[in-house]
Structure formats: C-alpha cells, structure tokens
Amino acid sequence: MNPETPDTEAEAEVRPPPSAAAMPDPAVMPDPEDPRPAPAPVQPTVTQACCDCATAGSLDGSGEDSGAGGYVYVLGRVHAVFPDLSVQREFLQAAGADGTTYTTDADALYRVLSAPENRYIARQMCYVLAVQGVDTYILEPGDPTVLDDLLEALRPVEDQRDLAVIVGHLGPVAPPDACQGLSVRIVGVQHIWAFDSRELIQAIDRPDDTSSEEFERSAGALLDRLLQLSDNAGTEPADRALNFLTVRDQEIYRKTNQKYREGYTLSAVEAMPSRLSAGSQTVITAVFSYTHLQTNVTEKWFTRVGLAGLFPFRVTPLQSYYSR
C-alpha cells in the first residue's frame, strides 16, 4: 500500500443504512401509468389525556372538589335564616297580619313558620344547625315531611340540654348565595327529631329501689358528660357512635345510676375502633370508666356500636371491659 495514497475506504464517511421508515411504501407508490392521484400517507393517531375531566368520587366535573359523601349523626340547635330580603319582608307581613305579640324572635319564627297558612314561607327559609353555638351545617329536607320536623326543632327551649338530632347525608359546601353567604357543608336530612332531655330521662326504665329524683340526678349527670363529648360535627365514626348512645341507649344511664349508688363516679368515656370492623361495616367500642371515690379502683364497661350505614345500631350489650 502506498503511504502517500489516501485510503479512501478508511476516510469514507460511514453512514447508517436507510431505515425502513424512510423507504417508500410500495403500496402507496404512484404508478406512472395510473392517472389517479396518489393516496395521502396515513398519519398516526395520538390520544391525549383529558386534564379537566372529573375524578370519580372527588370532583364534580368543574375541576373543583365537591366534598360530598358520608353520613352525619349530630346533635345541635336549629335556627332559621332569611335567604334574601324578599322572604324577610314576606315573613314580617305575615307575622304582623293578626296583631299577635311575640316574646322573642325565636318564638316569632317558630309560631309564624309553623302555621299552615305560612307554609309557603317556611319552604323558602334556610335552616342552619349550630353545634355549641357554631353554625356547622345547612339543612336540606330529604323529604317534604321532614320540613314539619325541622319546624318543630325551631321551638324555643329553656333547658340547654334540649337539642335536635340530625341524621342525614353529608353534601358539598353551600354556594355563596344559598344562605346569606354562609360557607358550610350541606346535609341532606333524612331524619330529625327534637331531643327533650327530661323526656329522655323519664322514659328510661328506672330501677324499683331508686327514687325518681335520685335517678334523674344521676342520669342528668351522665347526659351532661355525654353532651360535652357531643361537641363534634357528627361525621367521624367515634363521634357518630357516642352521639347515638347519648340519645338512644338507656342501658348506660341505668349502669351509671347503679355505679353512683355503689360509691363510684364516671371518670372517663372513650370510643375507639373495634377489631370486629370488617369491610364496609365499622364497629366502634365505647368504654365507660367508673372510679371508686374511696379505693380509687376503676371499673370499665363497654358496648359496641355498628356503623354499616345511615343509622347506627348497638352490636353488643353493655358488659365488663378488660384491657389487653
């Protein structure tokens, strides 16, 4: 090999072989003898993900979280709010039509809205549930008959323990124009009743060897303790279970009266998930602790509450509890 002669093979640019994509497709190559135009090449189809689509269970299609879902079992006070000026003026005209004098605003709202001839005004009102004085929910009747119970819950009460019990479905946050700009969640009310503390205590089966005054005193003390625990929105499983026991379970009142007579005092109330919870059914264990005033010995009793749907229910009766 002549060293002065350049090696054309070594210096030649190495090019990759043409790819198959660059080669013309024989199926679409034009026939020089065919007068028809050549077909256009097929372009690949690209599907893009939708960025504005609603996420199932969390978005309502507008890209914002609807927040709907879940159950509510809550205790509080119901009051009525005028949604706009026109409803307020119509109410005032109806209230002054018969010349009746009302002692308080709450009394006027209850009496006027409860009158059958003013039902058209009652249907336009906005009903709000306050828990411990804080507006928590806007109430929407799930059935026309629920409106009667809502109006009954407006009745003026003297005992601070007289509350309303609301059972329903948790909805989204109310729009700004729904109830004078009140920005709270809406509850679709399925059941509501006015909770009268005296009627509850008197309805409990009193032991034969206990006077009515003694029993009402012990039951009232337990009710006060449970109502302190009911300072909640009634959406968490433990809160729903305790709220249910407060207004529906007589056995805990009888047991508390018995322990008071034996020298014990109610020292603690706890609610925790049970190991029996499975699948869609949540079970809450409610533990009531009683401590002896002289020996400082603590006894614990418990019951279980099932939360498989809208209405809580008791799973097991009240029985002795042993810590693991």
Automatic annotation (TrEMBL):
Highest taxon, organism lineage: Bacteria
List compositional bias (Acidic residues) regions by residue number: 1-11
What protein does this entry describe?
PatG domain-containing protein
Q: Where is the composition biased (Low complexity)?
A: 20-30
Q: Which organism is it from?
A: Streptosporangium nondiastaticum
- What region holds the PatG C-terminal domain? 210-321
Looking up InterPro entries in the UniProt record yields: PatG_C (IPR040636), PatG_dom (IPR040483)
Which stretches does the entry tag as region Disordered? 1-44
| Ranges where the PatG domain occurs | 71-161
